[in-house]
Write a structure and sequence with these properties.
The protein has 14 helices and 27 strands. With 518 residues, the protein is α/β, with parallel strands linked by helices.
Amino acid sequence: MSTTAVEPEGLFNFADWLLQRNRSRPTRTAFIDDTDRLTYGALDERVRRAAAGMLAAGLRRDERVLLLMHDNVDWPVMFLGALYAGVVPVAVNTLLTAEDYAYMLQHSRAQAAWVSPALLPTLRQAMAQAQANGGHAVQQVWCSGESADGAEALSVLWQAEPMAAPASTDAHEPAFWLYSSGSTGRPKGAVHSQANLYSTAELYGNGVLALREDDVCFSAAKLFFAYGLGNALSFPLAVGATVVLMAGRPTPEAVFERWVTHQTTVFFGAPTGYAGMLASPHLPAREAVALRLCSSAGEALPRELGERFTAHYGVPIVDGIGSTEMLHIFLSNLPDDVRYGSTGWPVPGYEVALRDDHGQPVPDGEMGDLYIKGPSAALMYWGNREKSRATFQGEWTKSGDKYVRNADGTYTYSGRSDDMIKVSGVYVSPFEVEATLMQHEAVLEAAVIGVEDGEGLTKTKAYVVLKDGRTCDAATLQAFVKDKLAPYKYPRQVAFVPELPKTATGKIQRFKLRDAQA
């Protein structure tokens, strides 16, 4: 089975490729979760047993299975086992509602489901709703841990004899699905290939981050996210590193515990998480941790956060942008060249372009829509031709983000296209105003939207979360922004709130703030 430096062709099975790479280190720890750990040798055997067990249980190649599980050692076993067998796992967010899962079951026509015990009641509700809406019945439910509520234990699948050879999958056939966040309408099922995991591991995990066998990796982003899937599975396993998994929420205290206990060397987080950690009174001292590198994605990292973190720990936060559609990061800073305030340069192997509303290139210094060309683009949105054609335009993928290219070749984030605010005929980037507000010593977080005044004109409004124990007033923050940005960008209104609405990845949901104004 041959591969190229960027993209394999012909017969290729990503799970088999990973297992083969690690057969020289069978006793090395691959995964550590809240209660268990798995060596590379045990992972190899269990993945191949799970693959054989799936087929013995009646699952057929190309059939979809809903993967609704908290992060533990069973998650990578089932995901890789499915890829090994040619079954298609549909990895979904564990924080959704029964209605969301009912839609995903109908949309994906999943034949089976793998679920964590705590999520089983919600899944049962979703299955009932899907059937009531005319959807097909899920044939089998398998539960992580012990059997429960009619669901058989996943471990039963591992009783099969290990599958001797992987399914003869093509590098570019559908291998797994990830659903978009669905912040505007129903979530979209992005279909990814076997080759896409390889491309991101080689181009970003190896090519940019240069992960090592002796690394201990911990990702605040869960495995069901595109970002987390690379951070905590494909990237570290491609080099034989160790991964720490956590089932619960990545609160600052929970993250710190794993940094210290497991001596994490590479941490993957998001701006919201970094802000919360830096504001925590329990932030560990530099000498208590073993961090050598940190990553950030999900939203652009404000300069102030990056600089404060590096000042405390002496390690860089490598900020980048990726997407569910591109599977991982395609525009990034570099570990030895971090330009805080920018998202860095195109990852080698990817091309990016900025275009105006008519599809024409924009010059340096002007805002444009970001397009990406690279080997890890999803094949399509399942069953959604209109959205597929709008996003996947030939070799290019339209990201939905606004960016500016700087004179040094770096790119600066301006916001999501649907979040942009037009004030007096000029676009204002909410992110730019938010990042400026967060430079104020009293501000923990901020979100900026456009609201209409009494004359029907759009003005900016800021929602601000203050740090614990701090006080501030609107006039002070308005003056602070005026002093740092063009005067027309300052927020005409400031509302102080206890928290901001966010997605499970920590992205601010500005549309909810806009809806509240309507």
